Amino acid sequence: MSIIQHIPTGMKKTFIETAAILKGHERRRFMASIVNSLGRGGSSWAERELGWNRITINKGRRELESKEPIKDNYSARGRKKAEHHLPNLLEDIKAIIDEESQTDGTFRTTTLYTRMSAKEVRKQLIDQKGYIDETLPKAETIGIKMNNLGYKLRPVAKSKPKKKLPRQMLASNGLPK
């Protein structure tokens, strides 16, 4: 009889809880050491009874043998940025918006204001720069890119007129009071 058949329920619970607390290569090594101590059939038992993934266990076994953690490639995960697929996108957005933008009227910030909406910029990218509608990001994404480049959507203010001063009341003799 193998040792697997004699593992108490409390010990299974301890294995599961310990693996849940650990992260990364420590977790994989723990899982692999438990499975190795169980002997033949340990991987399938751990997968069935403990809910552990065999691929993770095998990765932990390789780490135990090499005594070096296997580096996880987190940067390769997820969606790539629009600039990855369209390398000239940011330059083309700047070229289109620069014609229609101006700096802050008070010159206190370097923020550029533009009248062009992200939807209009997207349309101009298709018309002027030859982008294809299906490959170009949606207007919301282009709006985010515009904000990252330092452009804010706001009506361009020429200059604000000074407020009218209150008129002084005239005395009965025609002189100001």
Structure, described:
With 177 residues, the protein is mainly alpha-helical. The chain folds into two domains: 7-66; 82-153, no CATH class. It has eight helices and three strands; from the N terminus they run ααααααββααβ. The chain has a three-stranded mixed beta sheet with strand order 1-2-3. A hairpin with an 8-residue loop joins strand 1 and strand 2. Helix 6 packs across helix 7 (118-129). It starts with 8 loop residues before the first helix and ends in a 24-residue tail after the last strand. The mean pLDDT is 84.
* Low-confidence residue ranges: none
Helix- and strand-based class?
A: mainly alpha
Shape: elongated
Could you give the order of strands across the largest sheet?
A: 1-2-3
Our count of helices gives 8
The proportion of residues in beta strands is: 5-15%
- Tell me the series of helices and strands, N- to C-terminal: HHHHHHEEHHE
- Specify the biggest β-sheet: 3 strands, mixed
